[in-house]
Specification:
Elements lengths: L1 H70 L1 H8 L6 H19 L8 H23 L7 H15 L3 H15 L2
Helix pairs in contact: 1-3, 1-6, 2-5, 3-4, 3-5, 4-5, 4-6
């Protein structure tokens, strides 16, 4: 009887070891396939998301650059120039235009990086500061042409404006998307 139990043990123990080894390797292979499938699904979803949002992101970068170009003190003054206006009225008109442009483009922050949008906001604020600084130097009889000249003078003294720096940053970020 002991020999029969011993013979059965000689058959069952190796068979059990083979079975446990097979289960182990099958489990490893299954987990590997699941990981590969998850990775492939993640990559596919990321690619689809990028394909879906890329046009919107490109448009956002374009609109941010356009906004910065439109509020650049030189282009803003040239576009809105009205020599018959008093300096104070012209200053108000310039500031209103900047705020309207900003409000029109505020949703673009959804598609550009946080750092880029912060630069856009700072550029807007710097442009407002330049206009206000020039406005403070005007007297009650100053006209729009006087304010324009003072704005051009301040811009020349500053050198590279934040809006110009921000445009370069936006272009660089957009190129990194590709």
């Amino acid at each position: 009887m002991e020999t029969i139990i011993f013979q059965i043990a000689l058959i069952v123990v190796p068979a059990g070891a083979v079975l446990l080894t097979a289960v182990y390797f099958l489990r490893q292979q299954s987990e590997s396939k699941v990981k590969d499938a998850k990775l492939e699904l993640t990559q596919t979803l990321k690619q689809q998301r990028q394909e879906f949002f890329l046009p919107s992101r490109m448009e956002a970068y374009q609109r941010c650059v356009l906004f910065l170009e439109r509020i650049h003190p030189n282009s803003l003054v040239m576009r809105l120039q009205n020599p018959g206006l008093p300096a104070m009225a012209f200053q108000v008109k310039l500031l209103e235009t900047i705020r309207e442009e900003y409000e029109h483009n505020i949703a673009q922050q959804l598609f550009v990086s946080g750092a880029a949008w912060d630069m856009v906001k700072k550029s807007k604020e710097e442009t407002i500061s330049i206009i206000n600084l020039a406005g403070k130097q005007m007297d009650a009889t100053s006209m729009a042409t006087d304010l324009s000249a003072k704005i051009f003078e301040i811009v020349a003294e500053v050198g590279e404006l934040p809006s110009e720096i921000t445009v370069a940053i936006l272009k660089k970020e957009l190129q990194e998307l590709f």
